[in-house]
């Protein structure tokens, strides 16, 4: 691994560096808010990140020259953005919106780093195009999970708050909606439920002129979901149909499906090395075996005070047993994996979003898209692997992207406990040409200080070493 994660433009400024007069104490939701759009303030650590500075740095993905007004958005939409404290577009918003809003509409395949505001880009296009005079479905978003579909609907509703009569609905498994026809301007669903709804003639598809796939690489790559997405597309007769694909990752092998799904699309893509999010400090912890890994995790949580965090594991069984152990030690933990019923999943997300639960233990089911601003730490308890046991860089990237969102700081810690897990992590780091740092657990007081400081200052401390192919104790 060659280049160290650049820290010179790390998106933080300490309280003393930031002019106090610019800091407003207003809070929106979560522990981090963007008061007036200028600063992101973390009350727990008293850190201010000057979002204005990030958005003025041409090398930062949040950079833009234009304002939302200059992007030709209708006045009610600008009003909605102001209410959400969105002052300036990010790079992806500034670049994608003019392409999306062109007439006649054209297809778009767009990639941008995690947490850089892709949702707003495709949402503002839909809100700009829908006609509100009759409640007819005109735009459809497909997302890989229930949780993401719900989140996207909420974003559409907030951004469209000043559009009179706007109706947005989810198409997700919901026993109370059985047999009821969907009547909304915009629908957001998971592919399986949408296919079923179309089959049962509960969705009038004739006027749907926009089809968006969020996390498009994931959906097109997965056998089942890819087929379902295709079936949905075939069921949309409207001409022209604007097909919009968004993701933080588009592996080369998926691009060919993407191009077939969205023919003649404009493309905005990144090289793997450009995907690194500077605000996320990436570390790893080296354990000698599984038992030690388990004990180390508990010790770590026993010591640290963390706003909110997500622990990713490989299996449902690990998720359940870790949750049980942590709850018995007094931690406010929830766990979410595929076997839970829809309403149980909703309740888990509600507890986590509200802060009632500080720790969410989950599998890859929640690795993508989820936006909870108070998440300052992501733990890869199991290093992500694909179904054939190979390293899975995309999933690693999406998982750690649950922190460090829109200029915020965050820490990602990966646990390795044997040669396989170490090799997998090393391959992932190599894929992105990035460095990971060893968190030395010989002195736990130091660990506590260092990790706290990173969340605070996003800088590596003294006992952090660079990951080397040779020389990691238990894993080599
Ligand atoms: N222009 C903006 N100004 C301020 N905040 C913004 C702006 N655009 C988006 N945000 C906020 O940034 C956060 C991340 O946005 P979003 O969830 O759309 O990211 P994303 O690019 O889709 O990430 P991922 O790849 O992880 O799905 C959200 O909390 C959103 O409200």
Automatic annotation (TrEMBL):
The keyword Lyase does not apply. Keywords: ATP-binding, Helicase, Hydrolase, mRNA transport, Nuclear pore complex, Nucleotide-binding, Nucleus, Protein transport, RNA-binding, Translocation, Transport. Residues 1-30 are annotated as: Disordered. One of its GO terms (molecular function) is RNA binding. Residues 66-94 form the DEAD-box RNA helicase Q domain. GO terms for cellular component: nuclear membrane; nuclear pore. Belongs to the DEAD box helicase family. DDX19/DBP5 subfamily. This is RNA helicase. It comes from Pseudovirgaria hyperparasitica. The lineage of its organism: Eukaryota, Fungi, Dikarya, Ascomycota, Pezizomycotina.
